[in-house]
Each structure stands twice: as structure tokens, then as C-alpha cells.
Amino acid sequence: MTELELKKQIEGHNRRNKELKKVLQSRGLNEETLIEAEYHFWADMHEDAIAFAKRLYDEGFLVLVIAPVADENGTTWNLEVRKRETVKDVIGEPKTAYLVELANQYNALYDGWGTQV
Fold it and tell me: Looking at residue 93, which CATH number applies to its domain?
């Protein structure tokens, strides 16, 4: 991915995070509330998904899913991880940029995060 593509992806996630912050606040959570955030990634190659999952595990994430998903281009690998963090950390621009750039190092795409409230 080019630097411009990475920048656009980061900006898109940051816009979405601002909206998600409003949703979380409307449900009574503040920036210091701890949540179980699930992060979603896609990788083209099984080997990349495995290596990336190991890296995330080494950084304290719990690996939930590494699974193939058939699509029109063949097989893509779904990677889902979880980590207990504050809302501030989850939605923060530094975390978003880090995950987008880290995913790119493993030929993967960061697809965002979710949580149950």
C-alpha cells in the first residue's frame, strides 16, 4: 500500500471512531472506561495471517479467529483479536495509525474494531 493509501485508510478509521465515540458516550461510557475491543483484519495469505497473529499475540492481544473466507478472488484470511483497553486508547488516532501500518507490514488490512456494550 502506498503512503497516500495508508493515510486515507487512517483518516477513514479516525472519522468512524469519532462517530463510534458518540455512540459509546450515549450509552454512558467515557474515555477511561475499559472495554473488550475486538479488532478485525484481512490478509491475502495464510502465512501472513499467522505471522501477524503471532505479532499481535506478543503485544498482548488474544487471538480469536484465523479463518479462510472464500471470495471472488480466491481465499482471504480473516483475523480477529481482542484486547481490554480504555475507550480513549481504542479510538485514539495513534492506535489507529499503528494498527493500519502494522497490518500493512504483514500484507494485511485493518478493518476496524467493535465491542459489546
Answer: 3.30.70.970
HEC-encoded secondary structure of the chain = CCHHHHHHHHHHHHHHHHHHHHHHHHCCCCCCCEEEEEEEEEECCHHHHHHHHHHHHHCCCEEEEEEEEEECCEEEEEEEEEEEEEHHHHHCHHHHHHHHHHHHHCCEEEEEEECCC
The pLDDT value recorded for residue 72 is 79
Number of domains in the chain: 1
What range defines the domain where residue 90 resides? 3-114
For the segment 55-77, what is each residue's pLDDT rounded down to a tens digit? 999 999 999 999 999 877 778 99
The model's pTM: 0.93
